[in-house]
Write a structure and sequence with these properties.
Elements (H helix, E strand, L loop, with lengths): L10 E6 H8 L4 H12 L3 E4 L4 E6 L3 H4 L7 E3 L21 E5 L10 H16 L6
Antiparallel strand pairs: 1-3, 1-4, 2-3, 2-5
Helix pairs in contact: 1-4
């Protein structure tokens, strides 16, 4: 049975695609997936319809999370769709997939790493465009 079947077992930080793409300096799915896997060391769900990434974090994170830059932590009682364990890309009618799949013992992303990713993405979004 998947450890993600019951919502009280995890919380999720919802991060807009644009912020993730700026943080990892790419919008290419494979590059984003590799960057998230290495940086966050935990599972991340992507919703291609809603254009958000959901970094799964340990329960209790929402109580300490401060929403900013359109990023919030969805806590207990939130309903979040979870893709099949093997789904690693979007398919017609199935927009949810694992951008960074769970690995052995990696049921949650490191909260400090998620915060850093958000800060980096927000800083890059705030940078003025340089004319070339």
């Amino acid at each position: 049975m998947s450890p993600y079947c019951r919502s009280e077992r995890f919380e999720a930080v919802r991060i807009p695609d644009g912020l993730v793409h700026e943080a990892v300096e790419s919008s290419e799915d494979r590059v984003v997936a590799l960057a998230l896997t290495l940086a966050l060391e935990g599972p991340v769900i992507h919703d291609s319809r809603g254009r958000n990434h959901y970094a799964l974090v340990e329960p209790g994170t929402a109580e300490r999370w401060r929403a900013r830059d359109a990023v919030e932590c969805l806590g207990y009682g939130t309903h979040l769709g979870v893709p099949d364990m093997g789904r690693d890309r979007s398919a017609p009618g199935r927009p949810l997939y694992w951008a960074a799949p769970p690995g052995p013992g990696s049921y949650f992303c490191r909260v400090a790493a998620v915060r850093l990713l958000v800060r980096v993405g927000a800083a890059r979004l705030a940078e003025p465009e340089v004319a070339t």
